[in-house]
Amino acid sequence: MPQDQRKYKINEYLESLTVKEYKVGIKLIPKLLNVSANTIYNWRDIRLSDREDIPAQKANMLEQLFGMQRGELANYQVDMKNLKDYIKEDHQVVEQVSVDV
User: Fold this and answer.
1) Torsion sign across C-alpha atoms 3, 6, 68, 42
2) Beta bridge partners of residue 32, listed in sequence order
3) Are the CB atoms for 10 and 72 separated by under 8 Å?
4) 19, 23, 75, 79: least surrounded by Cβ within 10 Å?
5) Is 72 a domain residue?
6) Residues 46, 54 contacting (CB under 8 angstroms)
7) Domain limits at 40?
8) pLDDT tens digit string along 26-57?
């Protein structure tokens, strides 16, 4: 994935609207989310390489507005194991260190 790719699929969704829907939607979204139009504009331009993120509550609201499933707005995937797996691995490392000492 190129690093200049956008972090969120906001533009993709907006581009799927008709011109009329877009004009109304772009004015309505900031009101519904209680943020400025400039904030929406900035969120649309966040790149994968940027440290900036949309607050979780607002991202969830956007997903609902766009008819997306939770997590679908993000243009990237986070792969993590279950916490219990990490705990088990950490416990094994601690046991090895204890035995080696």
Assistant:
1) positive
2) none
3) no
4) 79
5) yes
6) yes
7) 10-100
8) 999 999 999 999 999 999 999 999 999 999 99
